[in-house]
């Protein structure tokens, strides 16, 4: 009877010991799982930091490339403008048909006088009459505005370009001034103002060599405002009116990009 009474007690003790061991093993397993999870989290955080650093480096390189492209484009535009101004300064005035016969008749009389230098008093007068023309052209102000634009000082450039039409209303640089206003607004993401500036080139200076580029960049600006339909129409207009130009090529590239955008 004593043996029968003690047997259940021994069995219960063994069960309690086994339960304790199982609880301890469960805690160990849980601890190992938590450690593994923490290790994975730490690895993911390090990977995110590495990717963030790579992203910042790529963004910096892209900014540098865009800055170099803007500088090269501005420099090219300045060179083209200077070349265009030189023929205008050296080319003799164009004569209309009604006056050509009269001018031909007096050309021989002018040859001898043109070979002789004018008197000093006439030279002073000539200098006085030419000086305002140079001032009215606004070339120095235009070049200074381009320097601000090239240097990334966009607000300064916009201020100078905005004041130019009032200061030099008869300048031959006005088409370029309005075009670069649009470019500056585009860079600072003022797309509505960029469209207004590009439209000024198109409506007021249809014979300017900036018309194709102004039409192209108006299409770019319309796309940035979210008006995809109008942007596509403008870019197709560039391709139709200026088919063999770099503007048409860029318009095709942007149209492909728009069509691929979901």
TrEMBL record:
Tagged with keyword Coiled coil: yes
Keywords of the record: Cell cycle, Cell division, Coiled coil, Periplasm, Signal, TPR repeat
Top-rank taxon, per record: Bacteria
PROSITE patterns (alphabetical): TPR
Listed GO CC annotations: outer membrane-bounded periplasmic space
GO term, biological process aspect, one: protein trimerization
Ranges of residues in domain YbgF trimerisation: 17-89
Coiled coil as UniProt keyword: yes
Domain Outer membrane lipoprotein BamD-like: 139-259
InterPro entries: BamD-like, CpoB, CpoB_C, TPR-like_helical_dom_sf, TPR_rpt, YbgF_tri
TPR repeats mapped onto the chain: 175-208
Cellular compartments annotated: Periplasm
Family annotation (Gene3D superfamilies): 1.20.5.110, Tetratricopeptide repeat domain (1.25.40.10)
Family, as annotated: Belongs to the CpoB family.
Protein name, as recorded: Cell division coordinator CpoB
Organismal lineage: Bacteria, Pseudomonadati, Pseudomonadota, Gammaproteobacteria, Thiotrichales
